[in-house]
Amino acid sequence: MVVNDLICTMSIDIISLMLRSEVGSNHSL
Predict the structure, then answer these.
(1) What's the 3-state SS for the chain?
(2) How far apart are CA 4 and CA 17, in angstroms?
């Protein structure tokens, strides 16, 4: 289903952003 693909891609983007923010904060500290 196209809807499932969109949800999967959106979830992956959100997770990647969260991981990047966490890594950035860790490096800044």
Answers:
(1) CHHHHHHHHHHHHHHHHHHHHHHHHHHHC
(2) 20
Q: Tens digits of per-residue pLDDT, 1-29?
A: 688 999 999 999 999 999 988 877 776 55
Give this prediction's pTM: 0.55
Type of residue numbered 11: S
Distance in angstroms (rounded) separating the CA atoms of residues 2 and 18: 24
